[in-house]
Design a protein that fits this description.
This is DUF3311 domain-containing protein. The protein is an all-alpha fold. 64% of the residues lie in helices and 0% in strands.
Length: 80
Amino acid sequence: MISDYFERKWLAIFMVMYLLVMLPLPFFFNTEYVPGWFGVPVFVYGWLAHGITVMALIVIYAHQCLKRPEYQDSVLEELE
């Protein structure tokens, strides 16, 4: 089990994003043509929005990871 709050929080965030995309919601999956802006199917915009959100979350996650002490150079120098 994950004991660190940081890891639990980000696991929950990415699992929610994964479960959201796996649900057969009409803005992610549609067997009929439902036009959106400029005639593009609505699910394309849903996938774009979800993809941009996931990429932003990855950037935030990486930024927060690099602030953690185990990723600092001083920790590596102490181990040597």
